[in-house]
Design brief:
The protein has about 100 residues and is of the alpha+beta class. The protein contains three helices and five strands; from the N terminus they run H-H-E-E-E-E-E-H. It is extended and about 60 Å long.
Length: about 100
């Protein structure tokens, strides 16, 4: 196993398991991702049982520094970020992961 999982990989995996036309699988996968993105953009959390939860969190405004101009403070505005919390089943799978092979 190497490289990242892509949307194309997901489509092919579902196609191989179901035999549904790739075009239909691609549309369903895209509609699913669109629904997740829309909900998050509205500030709603997305809970996927047996997988995990995507949570919208607000990071407070803070003062940072530009590494190129360290004497000048920069205000970093408050912003929304997405945090993912793995579900119980996914956490159990991660415990079986061979950590020596990650990042190869």
């Amino acid at each position: 196993m190497s490289g990242n999982l892509t949307k194309r990989d997901i489509v092919l995996n579902i196609y191989d398991k179901t035999g549904l036309p790739q075009k239909e699988v691609r549309e369903v996968v895209q509609l699913t991702l669109d629904a997740i993105a829309e909900s998050l953009a509205e500030g709603r959390n997305v809970e996927l049982r047996n997988f995990g939860v995507f949570e919208v969190q607000v990071r407070k405004s803070r003062i940072g520094r530009n590494p190129n101009k360290p004497k000048k403070d920069v205000i970093i505005p408050k912003r929304a970020v997405i945090k993912f919390k793995a579900g119980k089943e996914l956490k159990a799978e991660l415990k079986r992961l061979n950590l020596d092979r990650i990042g190869e």
